[in-house]
Design a protein that fits this description.
By secondary structure, the chain is an alpha/beta fold. It is built from 13 helices and seven strands. It folds into three domains: 62 residues, Multidrug-efflux Transporter Regulator, Chain: A, Domain 2, CATH 1.10.1660.10; 75 residues, Methionine synthase domain (Methyltransferase, Methionine Synthase (B12-binding Domains), Chain A, domain 1); 134 residues, Rossmann fold (3-Layer(aba) Sandwich). Helix 9 links the parallel strand 3 and strand 4. Helix 7 packs across helix 9. The radius of gyration is 20 Å and the shape is globular. The protein starts with a helix and ends with a helix. The structure holds cobalamin. Cobalamin binds next to helix 7, helix 8, helix 9 and helix 12.
Length: 309
């Protein structure tokens, strides 16, 4: 008898798991486990819900296989693969320019490098290919002692200031489509939210970011008062994931479209029984998911704005 996946009429883009497994010489169960444990790669799914492996996913898995074959523990291999992918990115010179400013502790240089990247690559690519890899690198340097708290804080402040500028300079968004964004109750990592807000605002959706470490009570009060068309919760600290899930539960109970993301939810195991939709790793795709729900909530506004003049 044929496997259900083989008879699935929906052929999405990319290889099926069996084909990827044969091509890479890695058992399908191992491919599933790498995705579950390390989010590597985050596969797209067919309409029938089956994994599809794109060329980019196969490249990541090939690197992972080689790292593991060289004797690395799978968790260390996953870390190295992420670093290698950043190295291979065509945005590498832009990343290096921002990091050079960071090493010189020059906030103006950091912002100028981001501005150059924006002019060259656009907002989406600058966020996903430059800003996030830079922050990951800063995190790695911080953890290894190469970067002290002063350098980390200066870099974070410069990046946030640039994001604020990009957001402020965007054309005025639709006031009746608001997305409410917050961190978990014990998490101060707002930068990812600020990056997402920059994309949403530039797409015409207004955003309100609540102050860091938002208590559940503040979140629910604000959500009830503002009636946002979507709520986003981000958490980076694995130790504080539970409290972020409590925020998600509280918002989801009110029936509002709820989304979440961040390092604390990277592996699929951490997303089990979490209410709401996981936003994934890329800001642009996350914004597209949210815009989808905003459009459903405001179909009339969408029709008016997209009809020919
Ligand atoms: C900047 C930063 C800070 C700043 C935050 C400033 C701010 N306003 O945001 C400051 C200095 C305040 C800070 C404090 C701390 N931090 Co900190 N911080 C970081 C750093 C360098 C970047 C954070 C960030 O913006 N990440 C976003 C991107 C760069 O992360 P990413 O891995 O690429 O994320 C992927 C996905 O999760 C997803 N994603 C991430 N964010 C979002 C957001 C949205 C909306 C979407 C859709 C997707 C998405 O996309 C990415 C692509 O795959 C990270 C390093 C890191 N790798 O994240 C550490 C990091 C998150 N911090 C860490 C720690 C431990 C701390 C402190 C506890 C340190 C301390 N001892 O004081 C405190 C925590 C305080 C608290 N209660 O929250 C650890 C967390 C470890 C863990 N897994 O729990 C990290 C990972 C550093 C490390 N290597 O150990 N931090």
């Amino acid at each position: 008898m044929k496997h259900r996946e083989e008879t699935d009429p929906d052929v999405g883009t990319g290889l099926r798991i069996r084909e990827a497994s044969e091509l890479l010489g890695v058992p399908a169960a191992t491919l599933r486990s790498w995705e579950h444990r390390y989010g590597l790669p985050v596969t797209s799914r067919s309409a029938g819900g089956h994994r599809r492996y794109t060329q980019a996913a196969l490249t990541q898995l090939g690197l992972m296989r080689d790292e593991v074959a060289s004797g690395q523990k799978a968790s260390d291999a996953a870390r190295r693969v992420r670093a290698l992918l950043d190295e291979m990115s065509p945005a590498r010179p832009r990343i290096d320019a921002v990091l050079a400013g960071s090493e010189r502790r020059d906030a103006t240089e950091i912002r100028a490098a981001l501005e150059d990247s924006f002019a060259d690559l656009g907002l989406a690519e600058t966020l996903d290919q430059v800003v996030l890899p830079v922050m990951r690198q800063i995190g790695t340097w911080w953890a290894s002692g190469r970067c002290d708290p002063g350098q980390e804080q200066l870099t974070t402040a410069a990046v946030r200031a640039w994001l604020a500028r990009i957001t402020t300079l965007a054309p005025s968004p639709e006031p009746d489509r608001q997305v409410l964004l917050a961190t978990g109750p014990h998490d101060v990592h707002t930068l990812g939210l600020e990056a997402l807000a920059a994309v949403l605002v530039n797409q015409g959706t207004s955003c309100r970011i609540l102050p860091a470490s938002t208590p559940v009570s503040v979140l629910t009060t604000e959500a009830a008062a503002a009636s946002p068309s979507a709520v986003v919760i981000v958490s980076h600290l694995s130790s504080q994931r539970r409290s972020a899930v409590a925020s998600l539960v509280a918002v989801a109970e009110s029936g509002r479209p709820t989304f979440y993301g961040g390092n604390a939810f990277r592996s699929p195991l951490t997303r089990k029984r979490v209410p709401g939709s996981y936003l994934g790793e890329r800001m642009v795709e996350a914004a597209a998911m949210i815009q989808g729900s905003v459009r459903t909530a405001f179909p009339a506004v969408e029709q008016t704005s997209s009809s020919p003049a």
